[in-house]
UniProtKB/TrEMBL annotation:
PANTHER family: DISULFIDE BOND FORMATION PROTEIN D, GLUTATHIONE S-TRANSFERASE KAPPA
Keywords recorded for this protein, A-Z: Disulfide bond, Isomerase, Membrane, Oxidoreductase, Redox-active center, Signal, Transmembrane, Transmembrane helix
Transmembrane segments: 7-28
Thioredoxin domain boundaries: 39-222
Family: Belongs to the thioredoxin family. DsbA subfamily.
Gene Ontology MF term list: isomerase activity; oxidoreductase activity
Protein name per UniProt: Protein-disulfide isomerase
InterPro entries according to UniProt: Thioredoxin-like_fold (IPR012336), Thioredoxin-like_sf (IPR036249), Thioredoxin_domain (IPR013766)
Transport is among the record's keywords: no
Amino acid sequence: MTRSTRIGVVSGLIAGALVLIVTAVFIIRANVPSAPTAATAASSSPTGAVTPTRVLGPPGKGAVTVVEFLDFECEACAAFYPYVEELRQKYKGDVTFGFRYFPLPGHGNSRTSAAAVEAAAQQNKVEDMYQRMYETQKEWGERGTDSQAERFRGYAEDLGLNMSQYDRDVTSKAVLERIQRDVDLGTTLGVNSTPTFFINGELVPLQTYTDLEAAVADAVQETR
């Protein structure tokens, strides 16, 4: 075998090997599922499946339900809070507004605040405690692992709750499991940040408040 022939054979073998490697890479990549985003995960849920764990105010008589996955220690949620209140007033009696708990792991008092709100809900004071949490967030938020449970207990006293019942409920298995069920549902739906809104079971692509305002208006218009 001449030198030129040997070079040709080696070159052919190398080229063949490269083809096999490239082909294998494409096959592997084609079979690796991409990570679901919130939008794609939510789109697989049936319309109307995302109901609120707690309703704010009387339910609306219309066919539109807005559900927010929220974290009471989340600054973005607190920033959206006054706008959500405006929408509640604007569509009072027509649209149902509610929420589900979605405490984020990076916030030391997310679950503690959620438990306080849910304990208040056991005494029909969910809306009052919900509002108190957001209106005072700057006083207790971002404190790391420094528990604000006593502060929240003070809120409960201010609202006139039965404190013996509150103390039982705030650490009860039923309350903690209810919060976890909301987290589990949110995770299943692809929720990974707060606030995340669903309208009639459909995820709202959200960048600013006006996106939410427009989505609610569109949903109301569609039901008329």
